[in-house]
Structures are given as structure tokens and as C-alpha cells.
Amino acid sequence: MSTSTAFEKAKNENRAALVGYLPAGFPTVEGSIDALTTMVEAGCDIIEVGLPYSDPVMDGPTIQDAVQQALDGGVRVDDVFRVVEAVAATGVPTLVMTSWNPIERRGVDRFAQQLQDAGGAGLITPDITPDFAPEWIEAADARDLDKVFLVAPSSTDERIAMTTAECRGFVYATAVMGVTGARAKTSELAAPLVARAKDLSPAGSDLPVGVGLGVSNGAQAAEMAAYADGVIVGSAFVRTLLDNRSDEQAALKALASMTEDLAAGVRAR
């Protein structure tokens, strides 16, 4: 299922979509499935499954801790697809967020086919731009997979226009300059970036824009939902699991509570 379906549903309900992220294999492969399905049940509209990689690009210390735990546990790319399959079976669009290197090593066409076979919606590729990803664009277009590229406050108008033209599903707007991590307040750069992405996109306002980096509670989600089509949350979910790592049931309960708070926030626009 494409993420555009979830964004359309949220738009019809006059709200933003809630997009939740966790790395596959954290705290374990089965544990990540349990956590992500808990997030779906508590209100996430779209799920991002992180592919653990030893050389992160955007990951801040919180996500790095979780990724390292997954790598230490022996998680493999095939495990990522197993997580995607389990989460996608809930009916919620499920994407993989990954550095480019693991895709290239496996083979772009093979990776795309395995993603499709698992029921995945598409890929978020934070460290590659459309002009350097012709093979992925071809493989994705052949399978109708979402292509989610990133724009940042530092992106030129030309770069934003080129990037949004190649996105399918949504465009990922990084609201702050720097690595991931929950923050005390959201960035003042986010709203202007969303406006630029829509103004410069060939699809105009029809292109959903999801904003990520920094949201950690419902109040911040509501603030961002006033101008964004999607509110993307990662580090806050990871931190909740890290803080409750000694008690799996307590961790899932805390995760559900946080998701419910965020889901209420995107509905309070």
C-alpha cells in the first residue's frame, strides 16, 4: 500500500498523518515487530523500518544506540524484510529507511523486488539524491514503490524542484540542520521549508510533505501538524524503548501511551 493512501485519509479527516520509525532488530527482531505493531494499534498511520547500518548518516546518539544493539544482535537485511512483512500485514503503509550502501551491496533490483515481495510501500533514502539514483528510480517505477527523498533548509530552489519531481508518496523535509534527536521545541525552519517544497514541486500542494527530526510529544506534533501533511517521529520512540529496556511489557505500554499522545496531537491542528 502506498503512503499516499494514508496521507489522503488523514487529509480527509482534516489532520496530519503520524509517521513512526524504529530500527529493525531493536531490541530484537521479534521485539521490533511487537513494538511497531503496538505503534500501529495506538495510532501510527505510516511506519518507517530502519535498516541498521554501521556507518549512519543522520542518526543521532539515541538511534545510534538502538542500531548498535540491533547490529550486536546479528540483524541482517533479510530480517528487515521480515519485519516489513509483519508490519505491512496490519494494512499500514510500511517503508524502509536506509543508507544507500546496503541497497547497492545487495543489488538495487533485487532489493526492490524483495521489498515489494514483503509488502513494503517504498524506500526513504537520506544519503542519496535523485540525480545519483537512476537505478533505484527505474526499479521503483517498475514496481510502483514510493521514492522518498529528503530536502533540507539549506537546499537550493533548484535542488528542491528536482527532488520533489522524483518523489512518490511524499517528500521528507528535515526540519532542523543536524542529526536526529528529540528536541525541546520544534524548528522555526520547518514551516518555510514545507512551503518551499510545495511551491517548487511540479505536483504543487498535492505532494504530501512529511516533517521529521525533533518531535517528542503531542503538543509539538500539533504545532507541526498545522502546516505539515505528516509528522515523523523516531528518536522519541527509540528513547522510550531504551528507557524501559529491562521490562518488555512496560516498554510496550509506554510506547503505546506515547503514540496515543502523538496521534492526538496530529488531530489537534
From TrEMBL:
The keyword Glycoprotein does not apply. Its EC number is 4.2.1.20. Keywords: Amino-acid biosynthesis, Aromatic amino acid biosynthesis, Lyase, Tryptophan biosynthesis. The keyword DNA damage does not apply. Pathway: Amino-acid biosynthesis; L-tryptophan biosynthesis; L-tryptophan from chorismate: step 5/5. It catalyses: (1S,2R)-1-C-(indol-3-yl)glycerol 3-phosphate + L-serine = D-glyceraldehyde 3-phosphate + L-tryptophan + H2O. Pfam families: Trp_syntA. The active site is at E48, D59. InterPro entries: Aldolase_TIM, RibuloseP-bd_barrel, Trp_synthase_alpha_AS, Trp_synthase_suA. Signal peptide: none annotated. Belongs to the TrpA family. PANTHER family: TRYPTOPHAN SYNTHASE ALPHA CHAIN, CHLOROPLASTIC (PTHR43406:SF1), TRYPTOPHAN SYNTHASE, ALPHA CHAIN (PTHR43406). The alpha subunit is responsible for the aldol cleavage of indoleglycerol phosphate to indole and glyceraldehyde 3-phosphate. Tetramer of two alpha and two beta chains. This is Tryptophan synthase alpha chain. It comes from Nocardioides luteus. The gene is trpA.
